[in-house]
Write a structure and sequence with these properties.
DNA-binding, TetR family transcriptional regulator (chains A, B), 202 residues, 10 helices, Tet_transcr_reg_TetR-rel_C_sf (chains A, B), Homeodomain-like_sf (chains A, B), transcription (chains A, B), mainly alpha, elongated, HTH_TetR (chains A, B), homodimer, Tetracycline Repressor, domain 2
Chain lengths: 202, 202
DNA sequence: GTCTATATCAGGATAGAC
DNA sequence: GTCTATCCTGATATAGAC
């Protein structure tokens, strides 16, 4: 008995929806496709969820939550601020699949629906804030140049990842993603202070 | 008589398709919507184009061409390499609408169709190459640090724009786009050599 | 070249039996 | 809770008249 089969109906529906939204987007995902992948009947689906958008909302919340945890594992890890940002940028990714959250950003029905947009908004807002915190902490420790703007730089880092996916998918090749990441890491490395600097040590 | 009305049927169809692809993506755009916006009948449309994908191909080629021209106006302009990249990054944009080419990257049917993907691929390939050329030229002139990797940095610049759109649409606010651009410009500014440097002058 | 049928299938959901 | 039947609309295209 597979893991999938032992899960509850509701859980299987949410997971199917997560997968399909990632692969096909919101417009491209039909209730029929969801229930077929989940292996449940139509009546079953409409019993647990009011319809497509309710299913999508549950799926997006789940995906955003998972992505946040994954990012936190890198950004909350050990090392300097540069190390932690580098860990986030270079963590293993299935580049050509793109970002399951960033992708939804291109879906009209999602962006125009405040409820559906909220998980995306919160996720990216948290991400930029978290990266900015890491960078600001690096500055306080004297690791990074004081002139660096943590908030703007955090947006840049997050944008490089999302834009890297776009470039890679256009090329059908992960190379542009990797190049973009290496490019921003090199620029960031130039902001790393060479000496232990002015940090207070006991 | 409006400009639209005096155009030929074929031309009106292509323009309608360009608009709709930008707004709704490929899956979200129906032949019916195209012909209604163009103000032509169904028979007319299938006379000039074999179907939806042929129409999309014509539209994407046109859009990519226009975008390339727009980018060239900035990147081929006057000033230092930094100035020209900055001109590209900060040129006026309707940020919340996103990039009409980058958007298609999230459309399964487009990316999986080699013919439809080609215009996207060529456009971004050209863009990264053009930015890399500008940066390399800046290095030869002694404007930019020799250690900078023009190819990787070019990918970063292109990614920041595409990713900036994603962040802005998630937030329903252009601010993250602007922040990402300012962030990468500040990082790039740190690569500008302070002196006229080693350039040969007559 | 353009128009109006016509055809087929999928999307998205409701109804009511079990 | 789950199933099957049914409904209505739209997507995508073909046919053949004008």
């Amino acid at each position: 008995m597979s893991t999938e089969e032992r899960l509850g109906t509701q859980e299987r529906l949410v997971r199917s929806t997560q997968e399909l939204l990632w692969e096909r987007g919101y417009v491209g995902t039909s209730p029929k496709a969801i229930l077929e992948r989940a292996g449940v009947g139509q009546g079953s689906m409409y019993h647990h969820f009011s319809g497509k958008s309710a299913l999508a909302l549950a799926a997006l919340r789940r995906t955003a939550q998972t992505m946040q945890q994954t990012a936190e594992e890198c950004l909350g890890g050990p090392g300097t601020a540069y190390d932690r940002v580098a860990a986030y940028l270079t963590r293993e990714r299935t580049v050509l699949r793109g970002c399951p959250i960033g992708r939804m950003t291109q879906d009209r029905d999602v962006v125009q629906n405040p409820e559906l947009r909220t998980p995306l908004d919160q996720m990216f807002d948290w991400l930029r804030g978290r990266i900015a915190d890491v960078l600001a902490e690096g500055q306080r420790r004297g690791e990074l140049a004081a002139a660096l703007d943590p908030v703007a730089t955090a947006a840049t880092v997050a944008a490089v990842v999302q834009g890297g996916y776009v470039l890679a998918r256009a090329a059908d090749d992960p190379a542009p993603f990797d190049a973009a990441v290496q490019g921003v890491l090199a620029l960031l490395a130039a902001q790393v202070t060479s000496v232990g600097a002015t940090g207070d040590r006991d």
